[in-house]
Amino acid sequence: MSIRRSAVLAGAVALALSLTACGGSSDADGNDTGNTGNGADGGSAEGAESNETRVFGADNGDITIPADPQRVVATGYAVPVLIEAGAPLVGISSWQRGEPMMNEEDLATYEGITRVAGELAAETNYEAIAGVEPDLIVIGVPAPVLGDLDLDRLESIAPVVAIGPTIPSAWRELSRLQADAAGALERFDEVQAEYEAAAAELAEKYADVLPDLDFGHIGAYGEVAGGTFQREFGGSWGTNVAEDIGANYYGEVKEPGPGSRAVSEYPSIEELPDALGDAEAITYTVNADGSVPEPVQYVMDSELWQNLPAVKAGMTFPVRYTEAATYRQAMLALEALDESFAPLLDR
């Protein structure tokens, strides 16, 4: 089955600037020691000297970075990824949305790292970033949000690689790029392997029931005041992990937009029968504690919901941890899906 997963060296700001300007470095004998590559194909930094560099393909171009970063700053979606991967983090942005999905060890690590930015890119503290003296900065925000950052200022502190989210399901590839840039692929690959093994086990467990059903999904970002609900299709937040174990979400967005709008849409509540009337089973997003978000409850309180064939047949299933964007977080989503789908085995 196919599975889709921070000081410049003390007193040496000039070195960081030179690293961003060249594609490699030389050892004491004048030999070129630079490693070049693109993204995850950049090769291993294992055994690299601290002055070695490589070229890394990122959203902001081909960037010369340390081959073996020792002090990494991470923001946005890169925060949980690099915590899980054991990267040498010295500064991070706040990432409250991911706290409910962190295990005890990762949460302790998260709480112990210096905050250099808030939840939003516009809340970046450039003085704080300079103060922790990074040799690499990994920015994990969507490309359109890069405009809220002073990249020139960041690049004067350390090399910057921007690797931000696109469609929700792309967290697999993007998180691996983030871990690769930070020189933390070993642990990353271990967790990925654990996830893939668990997903394969569940795919086998539900092989006789999930693939034969046409699923729909109700997401948590509808607007109650506007009378809309969120329908998520394949590759979206609420669906992509379930797809890894065999669930099939039918249909596609009528008018695709950028990012998550390529895989989800926001019909009016009156369109609910047309949107999900053909669904044989429906999953819906719930909070980490199992409670139902207001936009989802709005749908479920509708008489139109009660009349859907899948609802009448008792074929509705809550899904927790739908914002999983790392392999360890997605493991939680797998466990939650197993719990929700278990009744299917007795039908």
Short overview:
The longest helix is centred in the middle third of the chain and has 21 residues, at 185-205. Helices cover 31% and strands 16% of the residues. 46% of the residues are buried.
Feature tags:
six-stranded mixed beta sheet; 13 strands; alpha/beta; disordered N terminus; elongated; 347 residues; five-stranded parallel beta sheet; 16% strand
Describe the fold and architecture.
- The strands form 3 sheets. Strands 8, 9, 10, 11, 12 and 13 form a 6-stranded mixed sheet that branches.
- With 347 residues, this protein is α/β, with parallel strands linked by helices.
- The protein is built from 13 helices and 13 strands.
- The longest helix is centred in the middle third of the chain and has 21 residues, at 185-205.
- Helices cover 31% and strands 16% of the residues.
**Category by helix and strand content:** alpha/beta
**Principal-axes shape call:** elongated
Give the DSSP E fraction (strand runs of 2 or more residues). Answer: 15-25%
Order of helices and strands, N to C? HEEEHEHEHEHEHHEEHEEHEHHHEH
Largest sheet: 6 strands, mixed
Which helices and strands, and how do they pair?
Blueprint: H1 13-21, E1 53-58, E2 61-66, E3 72-76, H2 78-84, E4 89-93, H3 104-112, E5 115-117, H4 126-131, E6 136-140, H5 151-155, E7 160-162, H6 171-181, H7 185-205, E8 214-219, E9 230-232, H8 240-244, E10 248-249, E11 264-265, H9 272-276, E12 281-285, H10 294-300, H11 303-306, H12 309-312, E13 316-319, H13 327-341
Parallel strand pairs: 3-4, 3-6, 4-5, 6-7, 8-10, 8-12, 12-13
Antiparallel strand pairs: 1-2, 8-9, 9-11
